[in-house]
Amino acid sequence: MLAVLESGAVWGMSPYLVRVEVDIAPGTTAFNIVGLPDKAVQESAQRVRAALRNCGYEFPSKRITVNLSPADVRKEGPAFDLPIAIGILSATGQLPQTPEGTVILGELSLDGTVRSVNGVLAIAMESRRQGRSRLIVPAENAAEAAIVDGVAAFGVTSLPEAVQAVLGELPPTPPPNIAVDEPHYEVDFAEVKGQESAKRALEVAAAGGHSVLMCGPPGAGKTMLARRLVTILPPLTLEEAMEVTKVYSIAGKLPKGCGLLTERPFRAPHHTVSAAGLIGGGSFPKPGEISLAHHGVLFLDELPEFHRDVLEALRQPLEEGTVTVARATHSVTFPAQFLLVAAMNPCPCGYGTDTVRRCTCTPQQVRAYWRRLSGPLLDRFDIHLEVPRLTAEEILEPGAGEPSAQIRQRVLKARERQRERCERKGLPFLCNAQLPPKLLREVCPLEGEAKELLRTAIRSLGLSARAHDRIVKVARTIADLEGSEVIRPRHIAEAITYRSLDRRWLEG
Q1: CA 404 to each of CA 265, 340, 412: distance values in angstroms, whole numbers, following the listed order
Q2: DSSP 257-292
Q3: Measured between alpha carbons, how far is 427 from 54 in angstroms, rounded to an integer?
Q4: Per-residue DSSP letters for 472-485?
Q5: Which pLDDT tens digit goes with each residue over 242-291?
Q6: Model's pTM, two decimal places?
Q7: In the chain, which end has fewer C-beta atoms inside a 10 angstrom radius, N or C?
Q8: Number of H helices, E strands in the chain
């Protein structure tokens, strides 16, 4: 007898539905799974056999053939365990055929417990798009599936519960509260003493979505500042929260039982990370760190210690907001719209700009250290920021600084001005850092003293055309924070001060 039901899978960031066909015929006892399964899918046979018997169901001693269609796409993971088990029960008459419009997925333990799987949110969204109305998933994934309107999600903890769901005897999981409220972070800018110029630069970065490179001696507070940048970014919109949750679900990073991620992500990979770990990839493509930082902050500490090929791989996503991983047989695009923050020391020993400790590096060592960063990569940082050592007075100063919530309000107002500017021109919302070159002259016109000041900076610092554009974008953000529609010379002057490392790199 033949039973047909549906499951789902994800390839890269693209979900698709899988037709699960279970045929049981007389003959020598066998259990074959076809349709380009990987090792985990092939092992489903052993898990399903044990789960059925341990839950009191009859396992047929016949020839069982399971086909996973489309058969020309490789299948991975244990998510097909549950639909295969349900298919066997239907094919043997122990259970009616699964109702049309039902998608089933889940991993089975040997005792019949249903375990969580990856990519449920993406599969739920694809199920809705293709007109499927019921989704039977592990209970730990029910919250993310229930987020999707128009799909009834049934969270199950065991194979018998899944049978109840198929029979219509189990109520659907109620949708969670998906209101994106004001985020609550464990860190705050009020904890940072001193570093007023650095706080100002990060406020500008948050307001315009600008990438930041911080340089300073050890202990100056670079990491502390970077970790608090997410606290002054605008709260995630519902659409952004869905995108972030989808990436984490596919990567298997979503906390168990979590429905929707409502805080902007902060990712800080170690400098030994590989290019695939940062960018994404693998035989079955998975999102990398830059995609896990989508709509959040990617922090690269000790930037020159990263492998050169890893750093150079950042160029495309920084410019385009996506990253494409191309292989001989396939190509996958991952989202990568993140705010990049990097930190480094001024020299190998770390004390090249320190006012207390003496640098022990030779000029050749300093030059080699700076040459680990290519000019094109340095060009892609909008803001270059020198972070000095705190003075004794700043360290011992009582009281707290300005809280993140207060800074975030100014950032929100600046972002709203950018949104209104885009709406007037009939464009989707773009932060100043995302403005394409063809719109830059229109949105950021320069006249008189401002234009002359920028011309002088280009000549003296040897800036590239890309660096020119980034200075203008930063100046536009500074003007937005001030509430000015015109970019004035003081805005250009402040933006130029954020290119101090251009000269350091040239001299290095």
Answers
A1: 16, 19, 12
A2: T-----S--EE---TT--HHHHHEETTTTEE-HHHH
A3: 59
A4: HHHHHHHHHHHT-S
A5: 999 999 999 999 888 788 888 899 999 999 999 889 998 877 788 999 99
A6: 0.90
A7: N
A8: 22, 18
